[in-house]
Amino acid sequence: MQSLRVSELGDPRDVLELVESPTPEPGPDQVLVRVSACPVNFPDALMCRGQYQVKPEMPFTPGVELCGEIVEVGSGVTGLGTGERVIGAGAVPAGGFAEYALMDAARTFPAPAALSDAEAASLFIGYQTGWFGLHRRAALREGETLLVHAASGGVGSAAIQLGKAAGATVIGVVGGPEKAEVARELGADVVVDRHTEDFVSVVKERTGGRGADVIYDPVGGETYERSTKCVAFEGRILIVGFAGGTIPTPGLNHALIKNYSIVGLHWGLYNERDPAAVRRAHDELCRMADTGGVSPLVSERVALSELPGATQRVADGHTVGRVVYVNA
């Protein structure tokens, strides 16, 4: 089979090498799937650079989520069978940047029939992150104001849709007019282009000075620091990631003075500590997909050979929505 392999660390465009490799064999509690579609996630780029918390032994194939058809099941697998269309986590080092990939059975779920392969592949990590972040960690309530940073990206676009479905007023922050248009199409009530506007001023103006009840922050750095200036009394700043490259050092005295919460989210831990909740969230997201409540934004479909450049564009922040490898 063909796969993209990382044998040395560096930028994705430099280290993702297209090779012929043996088809992997499923181990206990694993399934082998023919990959139908695999989105590029920011962690895929970080793995290439050796900057992700998971550091697989080289050589490895990235691709942390995918949609595919089961072709073989390993020992101990129950409830899954060959021919089933599934989504879930790629079992790196045999991830989804390939024609065939391994998946851990515990992180493999039925694909929603209403979505295409590319859309279904994009429903897992970003939407599960949004679901757990907004509902379980930040307890977003109907009528509240949700501020979403990087609102046109894969994680941010999911947060907009989930926030609107929850009955929140959504303010999306983006970088540039093209991304602003995407955020509007996704349903954001207010869109702020950070290149030309100050999101702090806009949030205060739109909320009558009260501020945002929940702030969804996958960026970190200065974005976090400025978010503290427009969070509401008893608001929640949700720490999702640090795509901006800088981990902020929060002033806890400021959180005390303004009575807001700084809430962390490492969604991957729920797969280990509360897998039943992950499955419940999957079922609810599939229901929402079937009724049109959510629909992953797929902006580009690329071939396997085009993935190194596509992964680099995601790493550099030059994409909107999801860029997805489709195995024709």
TrEMBL record:
Residues 11-325 form the Enoyl reductase (ER) domain. It comes from the Bacteria. It holds the Pfam family ADH_N. Gene3D superfamilies: Medium-chain alcohol dehydrogenases, catalytic domain (3.90.180.10), NAD(P)-binding Rossmann-like Domain (3.40.50.720). One of its GO terms (molecular function) is oxidoreductase activity. InterPro entries: ADH-like_C, ADH-like_N, ER, GroES-like_sf, NAD(P)-bd_dom_sf, Quin_OxRdtase/zeta-crystal_CS, Zn-ADH-like_protein. This is NADPH2:quinone reductase.
